[in-house]
Q: What sequence folds into this?
């Protein structure tokens, strides 16, 4: 399964993988929620997913796929090669990580490796993971990872600009419950208001 919000990229990946002859692309998704829904319905062996998609951050997509379809292995294919993105993806449950300037042959190798139950990390991701092992004292604090699934939903809706009432309507909960979730999100991330929350999301690469 391919998940990328750019149609040209998505269709190019589909053509590349299917041309290999042994890979069948069972679904395509253009945003985060669609990725989770289609993967839950089709149970693909491997999902090739971008990190920057509308509707739901890629890290959260990886985390939800691990919960919803644990047998499905996720290969992150992204423009981001910074250590922080790699580590967040691995912590969320990604089994592979490649940047988009990788060779087509490496993508095919990565998909085959994940299908066979192995992991595959490109040179940039492997370097980031090695640096983390050499300097564990620099372990990046991940308060976002301490949010519950519902709090992460509220987090992203706040970042998208929804008010508490709008969040309550979208999640079909009371305004009081939505406000409680909002308060806990701010407390756990140690930010004071929406502006600081958006800056936190930008700094951590959590914007869609």
A:
């Amino acid at each position: 399964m391919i998940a990328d919000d750019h149609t040209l990229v998505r269709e190019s990946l589909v053509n590349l993988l299917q041309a290999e002859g042994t890979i069948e692309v069972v679904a395509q998704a253009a945003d985060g929620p669609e990725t989770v829904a289609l993967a839950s319905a089709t149970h693909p062996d491997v999902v090739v997913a971008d990190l920057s998609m509308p509707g739901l951050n890629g890290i959260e997509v990886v985390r939800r796929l691990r919960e919803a379809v644990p047998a499905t292995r996720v290969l992150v294919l992204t423009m981001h090669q910074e250590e922080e993105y790699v580590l967040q993806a691995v912590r969320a449950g990604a089994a592979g990580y490649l940047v988009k300037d990788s060779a087509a042959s490496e993508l095919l190798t990565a998909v085959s490796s994940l299908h066979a139950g192995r992991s595959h990390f490109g040179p940039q991701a492997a370097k980031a993971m090695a640096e983390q092992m050499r300097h564990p004292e620099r372990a990046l604090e991940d308060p976002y990872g301490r949010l519950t699934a519902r709090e992460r939903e509220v987090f992203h809706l706040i970042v998208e600009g929804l008010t508490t009432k709008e969040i309550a309507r979208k999640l079909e909960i009371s305004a009081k419950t939505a406000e409680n979730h909002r308060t806990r999100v701010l407390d756990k991330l140690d930010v004071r208001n929406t502006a600081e929350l958006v800056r936190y999301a930008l700094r951590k690469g959590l914007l869609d």
About this structure: The beta strands are 2-3, 28-29, 46-49, 73-78, 96-99, 120-121. Residues 15 and 21 are 10 Å apart (CA to CA). The chain has a mean pLDDT of 89.
